[in-house]
TrEMBL record, chain B:
Organism expressing this protein natively: Azonexus hydrophilus
One of the protein's GO biological processes: electron transport coupled proton transport
UniProt keywords, alphabetically: Membrane, Transmembrane, Transmembrane helix
Highest taxon listed in the record's lineage: Bacteria
GO molecular function: NADH dehydrogenase (ubiquinone) activity; NADH dehydrogenase activity; ubiquinone binding
UniProt protein name: NADH-quinone oxidoreductase subunit M
PANTHER family: NADH-UBIQUINONE OXIDOREDUCTASE CHAIN 4 (PTHR43507)
Annotated compartments: Endomembrane system; Membrane
Pfam family, one: Proton_antipo_M
Topology term for the membrane: Multi-pass membrane protein
UniProt cross-references to InterPro entries, sorted A to Z: NADH_Q_OxRdtase_chainM/4 (IPR010227), NADH_UbQ_OxRdtase (IPR003918), ND/Mrp_TM (IPR001750)
Transmembrane segments annotated in the record for this chain: 6-24, 36-55, 85-105, 112-130, 136-156, 168-188, 208-226, 246-265, 277-296, 303-325, 331-352, 373-394, 406-427, 448-468
């Protein structure tokens, strides 16, 4: 009973904080807003730790909070499912959220929307917790859309900027395309399982393994394949998989703390979480898993390429996030769900760290985000420098750091995977290692090492360059030096750097190799043996780290680092020459494979043209013009004709009467 | 409580109050007229609360029944009663009446008493529609309720009100005459009864059923409105004053939809099954076609009017899939649409009162000068786009889920509203509210006052309540909807 109150407290504490900061944002002073929200999230974090310990002691929970609605034979409930997967997500969400709350005090210091911002990020924490704690698909969808709403509000936080309010609408609409698939998937679950409750659905799932439905004509489709692909389309929207990834780079219009919290560590991983949660369904369809692994592989590799040519510090990290989300998706496709969640967790720490460090650099640079204007910052911002280095090393998979364990596990699992598409996926994740190392250290070297390029009067960014979305650029005045940021900014960096180093070493044993997810994540190891085959070669975290020095990923990463050092520190003329030489490739990358242009032209433009055509042609033209006004004219015309008979002269009427009388008499006589 | 004639009170209190308000005469006594109108509206609302509080959820039949002879020569009776399908609409109507009285408080300065009286009388008449169990009584209320609406558009309306009223007249005249003919046929077939409940039990062959169904369909489709007989609605909304738009959207559109459940389905069940494909097709066209049309509207009121048609498409779609989830989803959608579209039209009215323009292009950056308004308008725009935790989500969710079971492709088309609804709602919101202050008129805007805040606040609470805890709403529907489904499942052909 006590634990159940604690479960309730975890989402409600941030909600109360959000309400205090939000409803009274115009009357309360700033310290009230940040104290209330930080207290709420801190309570939530401490409670999550307690719940985690309780879960580790073997106490899981699955119960209803209240009955949302009943209709027909269905019951829809709001309830919690607390198991190791949930507890892991709760810890990650509340910890990163707490760090971001503290960081925000420093980052948003000068912003007039200070209280509103705190309200939003606490509301986000509430929504995300409701999402991960759900014990049914409906509540999952609630949280799903609620985090989307807060993301919308936060991307458009600076609502007078045209780019920001375009980006937030784009994010919401692209996510809605994903939700379109997601709700159909939920509908299929309800229609065939009769319930949206996870436990009920998963228990019944094996019975439907070979069930088919009639989708088109006489073709029979596997129910599980259709259902899982529909659900995964939802995940593609939220977790920004190609081709629904287009919103994530633009979401960088939002303030940096939310880029760390929402668009790197937590919300974008909701899709990964959802697939892992519904593993008992996905395991029944190899076709769906194949779809998942191919989409993930495309995202992992091709979004990484885009990271190479970005000059906006946040956008480099954003494309890196896209690529890493692709890695997680590949892991899901290889049925290595626990590895995906493991990478989700390590990524949450080091990517939040990288984003917050980028934000720290942005503060130090007085809101100049262009890495071409930076250089040599390590002298001026030592804490930011060290923590960034740790984050970058973790990201590229340096042995013994967090990212190494999770990413290498993915690569190994894919190697053993036997489903269609896994060959391509293996190539993509392996090549991705090199790409990741290259773009990460390109940014690192350009920002922290080399010539000091800041403080030059002209910022060096040509106005018509595509990447210059971050208006708001002030930059440093000539002669001005960057400065280290206050402790509220650097403390979260340090606190996030710690797990970025150690969490992989600690986590891989229990989470991937152990029983941590037993009974939570379901893998059919006969049909999809990748993970179990990988684990046969696993002999503990230390051995895995040592073994890494003799594997291709290590040398690929090393090559990436060395090459970026050579290109950007030693011979900056080479990348420029390559850019000139391969201008077609460069143009393709600059235009982000033309996804935005195609979407803008085909979908946005097409919808407007279609709308105009239906309105002008259908409503105004045919229905109103021809039918409504036409019949009005017809009535008018008949009236005009019949009016001719009503002349007002008695003799006309008398004449008509006589004619009529004659006619009637004729008829009568003839009949008689 | 049920010893009191609650339904009669719900009908006649607003009507009598309306005539008392008229007695206050010219605009010299406007403050008195307003107070009396508010008093009448509140009293009318209070008498409807026991309908919900005293409602027996286990019983699917008519409750709070009143039966008196009216014209014995033709066996026409004053026969009232509500079931789980109609009860909530009586309450919603009485509630919306308070909203429109308060909404017109300072805005209407011309012929105040007549304005308030028109709304009160209309409210009573519409309660009559929802509670009539006699065909002729229904018809009288159905037609009489149009008169106040004509007057509201015609007297307090915009520049092009004559065209709008004429168009509306042309449409409805066509439909209601066929409706009357169908009633006459049923009167003779049933051996001289105008009781709707008798007609439910009346066996009819398939061919006459189809004719009856089509007559009803035309009458109700115009009211809903369904594609392609919808084009009167955007014009009527654009010309109507804010209060008129609120009532038209919140209650007016529900009358036709209600007719399907009270007349079409139970009287002609075989024809309903036979022609359900037609209605579903028209409903899906409403969702998709109208969604695209809404996207390109430049006039905010037209945009919301088109979005209303798309939302009502979900209602008719839900009715004709013949499952409890779908029908209850449609009913929930009707109630939710009452809150949300009412609030949307009020929001547009708030801006129109200040700027005297409904054109999206004349706005931009309103959030800078009206932050409180922007926050509430955001909530309703999101509800209009069907965001979970708002009422707008519940009905759409239920209908889409029911549609997946019914037919996957119907569900696919219905689910496009997730994208289209968000597109037209948020694109309008972006252009009107976000951005830099667009011009000096926007710069001079003042945020909402206490009265406006109260209206939007109450509607916001209703929207959230229904989104977070819809159980009280669906609970009362179960027994009646199940009875209806059982009834419709049995053929009437002998």
């Amino acid at each position: 009973m006590e634990m159940q109150k604690l479960y309730l407290l975890i989402p409600l504490a941030p909600l109360i904080g959000a309400m205090i900061a939000g409803l009274f944002c115009r009357i309360i002073p700033r310290w009230v807003a940040h104290t209330a929200t930080i207290a709420g999230v801190a309570i939530s974090f401490i409670a999550s730790v307690l719940v985690f310990q309780d879960v580790m002691a073997g106490n899981t929970f699955n119960g209803t909070v209240y009955t949302w609605m009943t209709s027909g034979e269905y019951t829809f409930e709001v309830g919690f499912l607390i198991d190791t997967l949930t507890a892991t997500m709760m810890l990650v969400v509340t910890f990163v959220s707490l760090m971001v709350h503290i960081y925000t005090i420093g980052y948003m210091q000068e912003d007039p929307g200070y209280n509103r911002f705190f309200s939003y990020i606490s509301l986000f924490t509430f929504s995300m917790l409701m999402l991960v704690m759900a014990n049914n698909f409906m509540q999952l969808f609630f949280g799903w859309e609620a985090v989307g709403l807060v993301s919308y509000l936060l991307i458009g936080f600076w609502y007078t900027r045209p780019t920001a309010i375009f980006a937030n609408m784009k994010a919401f609409l692209v996510n809605r395309v994903g939700d379109f698939g997601f709700i159909l998937g939920i509908g299929l679950v309800l229609a065939h399982f009769g319930s949206l409750d996870y436990a009920t659905v998963f228990a019944k799932a094996p019975e439907f393994a070979s069930a088919t439905i009639n989708i088109w004509g006489d073709q029979q489709w596997s129910l599980m394949t259709v259902t899982c692909i529909c659900l995964f389309i939802g995940a593609m929207g939220k977790s920004a998989q190609v081709p629904l990834h287009v919103w994530l780079p633009d979401s960088m219009e939002g303030p940096t703390p939310i880029s760390a919290l929402i668009h790197a560590a937590t919300m974008v991983t909701a899709g990964i979480f959802m697939v892992a949660r519904t593993s008992p369904l996905f395991e029944l369809s190899t076709t769906a898993l194949s779809f998942v692994i191919i989409i993930g592989a495309i995202t992992a590799l091709f979004m990484g390429f885009l990271g190479i040519i970005q000059n906006d510090i946040k956008r480099v990290v954003a494309y890196s996030t896209l690529s890493q989300l692709g890695y997680m998706t590949v892991a899901l496709g290889a049925s290595a769900y626990s590895v995906a969640i493991f990478h989700l967790m390590t990524h949450a720490f080091f990517k939040a760290l990288l984003f917050l460090a980028a934000g720290s650099v942005i503060i130090g640079m007085h809101h100049d985000q262009d890495i071409r204007n930076m250089g040599g910052l390590r002298k001026y911002m030592p804490i930011t420098w060290i923590t960034s280095l740790i984050g970058s090393l973790a990201l590229i998979g340096t042995p013994f750091l967090a990212g190494f364990y999770s990413k290498d596990s993915i690569i190994e699992a894919v190697k053993f995977s036997n489903i269609p598409g896994s060959g391509f996926a293996y190539f993509a994740v392996l090549a991705g290692v090199f790409v990741t190392a290259f773009y990460s250290f390109r940014m690192y070297f350009l920002v922290f090492h080399g010539e000091e390029r800041f403080g030059k009067a002209a910022h060096g960014h040509d106005a018509h360059h595509d990447d210059d979305h971050g208006d708001h650029h002030h930059g440093l005045a000539p002669g001005q030096k960057p400065h280290e940021t206050p402790w509220v900014v650097t403390l979260p960096l340090v606190l996030l750097a710690i797990p970025s180093v150690i969490i992989g070493y600690i986590g891989i044993g229990p989470m991937v190799a152990g029983d941590y997810f037993k009974g939570v994540i379901h893998v059919d190891s006969v049909a999809h043996p990748a993970l179990s085959q990988f684990l046969e070669h696993f002999h503990g975290a230390a051995a895995m780290g040592l073994h890494a020095f003799s594997t291709p990923p290590f040398y690929l990463a090393l090559a990436g680092v060395v090459l970026s050092w050579f290109f950007y520190m030693k011979r900056p003329d080479i990348p420029a020459a390559i850019q000139r030489r391969f201008s077609a490739v460069n143009t393709l990358l600059e235009n982000k494979y033309y996804f935005d242009k195609i979407n803008e032209f085909v979908f946005a433009g097409g919808a407007r043209v279609l709308g105009k055509a239906l309105w002008r042609g259908g409503d105004v033209g045919i229905i109103d013009g021809l039918i409504v006004n036409g019949s009005a004219r017809l009535v008018g015309w008949v009236a005009t004709i019949s009016r001719l008979f009503q002349t007002g002269f008695v003799y006309h009427y008398a004449f008509a009467m006589i004619i009529g009388l004659l006619g009637l008499m004729t008829l009568w006589i003839n009949r008689a | 409580m049920s010893n009191y004639p609650l339904l009669s009170l719900a009908i006649w209190i607003p009507i009598v109050a309306g005539f008392i308000v008229l007695l206050t005469g010219g605009d010299r006594n406007a403050p008195l007229a307003r107070m009396l109108a508010l008093f009448g509206a509140v009293a009318g609302f209070l008498v409807t609360i026991p309908l919900w509080a005293g409602f027996d959820v286990a019983q699917g039949g008519m409750q709070f029944v009143e039966l008196h002879g009216w014209i014995p020569r033709f066996n026409i009776n004053y026969h009232l009663g509500v079931d789980g399908i109609s009860m909530l609409f009586v309450i919603l109507n009485a509630f919306i009446t308070i909203i429109v009285v308060v909404a017109g408080w300072e805005v209407i300065q011309n012929k105040v008493a007549q304005y308030m009286a028109a709304f009160l009388i209309m409210s009573g008449l519409m309660n009559g529609i929802f509670s009539s169990l006699d065909g002729i009584l229904f018809y009288v209320f159905f037609e009489a309720s149009l008169i106040p609406l004509y007057l509201i558009i015609g007297v307090w309306g915009g520049a092009n009100r004559v065209y709008a009223a004429f168009k509306f007249f042309l449409y409805t005249l066509f439909g209601s005459l066929l409706f009357l003919v169908a009633q006459m046929y049923l009167f003779f077939q049933s051996g001289g009864s105008f009781s709707i409940l008798d007609w439910h039990k009346l066996p009819i062959d398939l061919v006459p059923q189809i004719w009856i169904f089509l007559a009803f369909l035309i009458a109700f489709a115009v009211k809903v409105p369904m594609w392609p007989v919808h084009t009167w609605l955007p014009d009527a909304h654009v010309e109507a004053p804010t209060g008129g738009s609120i009532v038209l959207a919140a209650i007016g559109l529900k009358l036709g939809a209600y007719g399907f459940l009270r007349f079409s389905l139970p009287i002609a069940p075989d024809a309903s099954h036979e022609l359900s494909g037609l209605v579903i097709a028209l409903s899906l066209i409403a969702v998709v076609y109208i969604g695209f049309v809404a996207l390109v509207q430049a006039d905010m009121k037209k945009l919301v009017a088109y979005s209303s048609i798309a939302h009502m498409g979900f209602v008719t779609l839900g009715f004709f899939m013949f499952s409890a989830l779908a029908i209850e989803g449609a009913l929930v959608q009707m109630i939710s649409h009452g809150f949300v579209s009412g609030a949307m039209f009020f929001c547009i009215g708030v801006m129109y009162d200040r700027m005297h323009s409904r054109q999206i292009a004349d706005y931009g950056g309103v959030v800078n000068t009206m932050p409180k308004f922007a926050a509430l308008f955001m909530l309703f725009s999101m509800a209009n786009a069907g965001l979970p935790a708002t009422s707008g989500f519940v009905g759409e969710f239920m209908v889409i889920l029911a549609a997946v079971k019914f037919n996957f492709w119907v569900a696919v088309l219905a689910a496009t509203s997730l994208i289209l609804g968000a597109a037209y709602s948020l694109w309008m919101y972006k252009r009107v509210i976000f951005g830099d202050v667009a011009n000096k008129h926007v710069a001079d805007l003042t945020d909402i006052n206490g009265r406006e805040f109260a209206i939007l606040g109450v509607l916001a609470l209703c929207t959230l309540w229904m989104g977070l805890y819809p159980q009280p709403f669906t609970e009362v529907m179960h027994a009646s909807v199940n009875d209806l489904l059982r009834h419709v499942a049995v053929s009437k052909i002998q």
